Amino acid sequence: MAMGRDSFDEGSLVLVTLEAPRQKYFGRLLRLTLAGVELRGVGLESLTDLAQQIREGESTAVSTVFFPMHRVERMELDEARGELPSLAQEFTAKSGRPVEVVFGHGEQER
Asked: Using CA atoms, how far apart are residues 95 and 55, in angstroms rounded to an integer?
């Protein structure tokens, strides 16, 4: 399980902030190289909608994406902070499904 790690290992859940244009993307880190960041996830603005779709039994749509390093402004591990839950914890509570299943490496969950 990726939560609780203190480094950017493959499989870690991360929040990536991008520039040009400014975006935030949440997902499971697949690869981090000098060339860029590859992850499986969704734009942060779509995370709540995705959780609701899953809760309602609709098909989900997570993507495997690559962002070149020149666009990456910041990347942080998804961790709870004090009493504030992590994005993964919030997602699991809203969707009723573990984030590890939805953002897994294999086939998309439906």
From this structure: 5
Report if residue 83 sits inside a domain: yes
Strand order in the sheet with 63-68: 63-68, 36-43, 23-32, 13-18, 72-77
In a domain, 89, yes or no: yes
DSSP strand pairing (23-32 vs 72-77): unpaired
The string of pLDDT tens digits covering residues 3-51 is 445 689 999 999 999 999 999 999 999 999 999 999 999 999 999 999 9
Q: Domain count of the chain?
A: 1
Q: What is the 3-state secondary structure (H, E, C) of 54-86?
A: HHCCCCCCCEEEEEEHHHEEEEEECCCECCECC
Q: Decide if 44 contacts 25 (C-beta within 8 A).
A: yes
Residue 38, domain extent: 13-102
- The DSSP symbol for 108 reads P
Does the pTM surpass 0.90? The reply is no
In a domain, 4, yes or no: no
